[in-house]
Amino acid sequence: MATQHSQWRTGLALLVTCSCLHVCRSVTSKPNILIIFADDLGWSDVGFNDNTMRTPNIDKMAKEGVNMSSSYMNHVCSPSRAAFLTGKYPFKMGLQHSVFTALKNNSMPTDIKLLPEHLQELGYATHFVGKWHLGFCMKKMTPTQRGFDTFYGMYNGKGSFYTHISKWDGYDFHYDTGKEAADYKVEWAANGTYSTNLFSDKTIDILKNHNKTKPFFIMLSYQAVHGPLEAPDYYVNTTCAHITVDSKRKTKCGMAAAMDAGIGNVTSALDSLGFSDNLITLFVSDNGGPTKEGSSNWPLRGSKITLWEGGTRVVSILHSKKYLPNQPYQWGGMMHSIDWYPTLMKAAGYNKTITGIDGVDNWSPIVNNGTSKRTEFVYNINDVKNTSALRVGKYKLITKAGKPDGWSYQPANVTKLEPPSKYPDYLLFNIDADPSETTNLINTKSLKKTIRKMKRKLKKYRNKLVPTKEYDTINAGKPKNHGGAWVSGWCDA
Ligand SMILES: *[C@@H]1O[C@H](CO)[C@@H](O)[C@H](O)[C@H]1NC(C)=O
Ligand SMILES: *[C@@H]1O[C@H](CO)[C@@H](O)[C@H](O)[C@H]1NC(C)=O
Ligand SMILES: *[C@@H]1O[C@H](CO)[C@@H](O)[C@H](O)[C@H]1NC(C)=O
Ligand SMILES: *[C@@H]1O[C@H](CO)[C@@H](O)[C@H](O)[C@H]1NC(C)=O
Ligand SMILES: *[C@@H]1O[C@H](CO)[C@@H](O)[C@H](O)[C@H]1NC(C)=O
Ligand SMILES: *[C@@H]1O[C@H](CO)[C@@H](O)[C@H](O)[C@H]1NC(C)=O
Ligand SMILES: *[C@@H]1O[C@H](CO)[C@@H](O)[C@H](O)[C@H]1NC(C)=O
Ligand SMILES: *[C@@H]1O[C@H](CO)[C@@H](O)[C@H](O)[C@H]1NC(C)=O
Ligand SMILES: *[C@@H]1O[C@H](CO)[C@@H](O)[C@H](O)[C@H]1NC(C)=O
Ligand SMILES: *[C@@H]1O[C@H](CO)[C@@H](O)[C@H](O)[C@H]1NC(C)=O
């Protein structure tokens, strides 16, 4: 009986498959998309930019894929992630200043269709694994109501990798499987396990259970290599044993090595489950490395939180056997966080122009190793700190870039660079010729016209600024009111 029943079911499934063969085929021909977000990974926190780092899987991806040398994100986490998912400049959403903090009702604008929401409409199964940090006090701000079928990870931006106690105190680890109240669950079982392993394993689990009639979009948003400096002992003391003097750098090396091992596990699973041929993978960091916490951005200047190149220009690798037929190559075209939304939509086969966003579709230039459609971008305009910077072609105009403003981890064999103690009102650098931002060209006579034009442009952008939003502190959100955990649903009107 049972056998007959299951035979009948198999027959039915086959029938259904056949009757929608045409539709199914056109759906499954869409690329599967895996985004691997590293957190706070510095330019030289990978092996291919610093040979003391141990990241063989990321290095391999860069060697085999499209290694982007001029790809930018924003200066810090929440603005960067918001820009990536909305395709809009943070300064046009009031999100330009800093990161989201717990107990505040901060969020991305709820009236913008996010990249995953758009992909769901194209038939994608969508999953978010890892650190969100984009608002959660109302359920409508959480990943499962912002375009992701499931969410496994942390709502907040910082916490222990093992205990998952947030920087703001309280347990922060979740497995949300839908939009209904019962779908929101605190994942107590994560307590004690390093988040890099949890996020890699969950991604593999999702792949194993994926119904291949749909394409997938997975955002694997690692907590690594953000502080606190925590990594499994093996990676620190064995893999990174060669780093002996600087203990912060040593632990950072261990964190990056552990993340790389997780990426290796995910890559193996993609291979063995047959996903590798129809896949697009993007590896990118959300911002530059924090140099006070053992990150190196050398030869780039500055740190996370600043608008120097070290805070904003990031390791970015796109890899696809099928969709990037000419890989490997280094692509020097200009790319910004806001461009990924339209670019990935095009990769997913969406041919219409997306309105209301600032990003440009660079898919064709990337695939063809051609000229970027982006010719200028705003690094940021911050109305609280008064920092701002604009790029037009090779030139970068800065009013104030912020601190730390030095060059971290300078090799012993270069002339030591020191930042000045005072700055003029404006700085100008030729980034093509001087990516380390050592030589201020603001007084160069032959560039007077260029400078005037750039100042005018920056002013025009500034006119579009939405003032930094201020948020109320809402004590109802305190974990002590919710069994010791950060949960959603305490600021609903
Ligand atoms: C990737 O490009 C960077 C420059 O942007 C370069 O330093 C690095 O060597 C390249 N990596 C590989 C693996 O080609
Ligand atoms: C946050 O709360 C304040 C007052 O409680 C309200 O004015 C504001 O609109 C809320 N912000 C968001 C994004 O919901
Ligand atoms: C996590 O596990 C440890 C060890 O069992 C325990 O002491 C701690 O209370 C747990 N944390 C939470 C938030 O339950
Ligand atoms: C996969 O999805 C198709 C289409 O929605 C459905 O008919 C089929 O039953 C699913 N397969 C499994 C194993 O869930
Ligand atoms: C790893 O190295 C740290 C720092 O040197 C040390 O405190 C720790 O005991 C080492 N762990 C093991 C298992 O050797
Ligand atoms: C990678 O997979 C191996 C084998 O299953 C496992 O022991 C290890 O913990 C995994 N590493 C990470 C970082 O997920
Ligand atoms: C990619 O374009 C660059 C710049 O135009 C060129 O130097 C390089 O040879 C090209 N590489 C490939 C593989 O097409
Ligand atoms: C998008 O345009 C390309 C090239 O013109 C075409 O091959 C593809 O079928 C179009 N995709 C959709 C979904 O219309
Ligand atoms: C920013 O500029 C305004 C107006 O010039 C000034 O009042 C304010 O003090 C400045 N803030 C900082 C942090 O420099
Ligand atoms: C400094 O040394 C590194 C190797 O340690 C080498 O790759 C680099 O080219 C050297 N730079 C200069 C300016 O000599």
What ligands can be seen in this structure?
2-acetamido-2-deoxy-beta-D-glucopyranose
- What percentage of the residues does DSSP assign to strands (E)? 5-15%
Q: How many β-strand stretches? A: 15
What is the CA-based Rg, rounded? 23 Å
The outline comes out as globular
End-to-end separation in angstroms reads 54 Å
Uncertain residue segments: 1-27
| Proportion of residues in helical segments | 25-40%
Largest sheet: 9 strands, mixed
Secondary-structure content class: alpha/beta
Q: Quick check: average pLDDT?
A: 94
Q: Biggest sheet: strands side by side, in what order?
A: 6-5-4-7-1-8-9-2-10
Tally of helical runs: 12
Order of helices and strands: HHEHEEHHEEEHEHHEHEEEHHEEEEH
Description of the molecule:
The chain is α/β, with parallel strands linked by helices and 493 residues long. It has helices at residues 2-19, 21-28, 56-64, 77-86, 115-121, 195-208, 233-239, 247-272, 309-312, 340-347, 363-367, 448-462; strands spanning 32-38, 66-68, 71-72, 125-131, 150-154, 174-176, 216-221, 279-285, 316-319, 329-331, 335-336, 376-381, 388-392, 395-400, 427-430. It has a 9-stranded mixed sheet, with helices on both faces. Strands 12-13-14-15 form a 4-stranded antiparallel sheet, with helices on one face. The chain has a two-stranded parallel sheet with strand order 3-11. A hairpin with a 6-residue loop joins β12 and β13. α6 (195-208) packs parallel to α8 (247-272) and α7 (233-239) packs across α8 (247-272). The longest helix has 26 residues, at 247-272. It is globular, with a radius of gyration of 23 Å. The termini are far apart. Residues 326, 329, 369 line the site of one 2-acetamido-2-deoxy-beta-D-glucopyranose. One 2-acetamido-2-deoxy-beta-D-glucopyranose binds at residues 13, 16, 211, 213.
